[in-house]
Amino acid sequence: MTLPALMLFGLDPKIANGTNRVAVLFSSGAAVATFHKHGHLDHKLANRLTLPTMLGVPVGAWLAVYLPPDAFEPVFGAIFLVMAVVLMLNPKRIAAANVGSVNSRRWIKPVFFAIGIYVGFIQAGMGILVLLAMSLTNSGDLVASNAVKNWIGFLVTLAATVMFAIYGLIDWLPGLVMAVGNVTGGVVGAKLAIRKGNRLIFGFLIVVMIATGLKLIVTSIFQWLG
After folding, report:
1. Per residue in 165-194, pLDDT tens?
2. Rg (CA), the chain
3. Rounded distance, CA 210 to CA 78, Å?
4. In a domain, 121, yes or no
């Protein structure tokens, strides 16, 4: 929502994209701090998953140079919708708190490397994929997964923000103004996740998956028609 709003107020799309990263960075940072304060951030696991994710990001960015992300948006949108339906048919599979078996943990690093490629390629829905990957590989419950998701999101966004700043593609005033609100949102969201637990995150996850899937598909349709 904030990215279209920035463009609506006249910012160039590239500058709007960079400015938006400032707000997202503060939001993720606030959420990470809250999860850490309440003892829900597994630093060892978070760092182990961050490395393959960050290694995948430049691969995805390189692919985006040669393969336009717009061409794949409807495919990713359809995947999100299908995954939402599958999860609604079997909610216990993801909502339960699980500890990973040796077999499931073998897939963690390759899966997060693939997520890094996706993030570098298209970005949209990164949080969804991280939550799904951690839950489906039994890497922890949704509260712990949400903490790790925010940690990875914070580091990825930090790297992107630095790059945008180097190229002068950030309007700092609106970025910092939005950051104030985003910090509040990050703290409140993290506290709600901790207080309400897996069911709240599961419901939110389904809604975001459907919304993201529809957005990607509808955007692609309008691009084809326009």
Report:
1. 888 888 999 889 888 887 887 787 777 767
2. 17
3. 9
4. yes
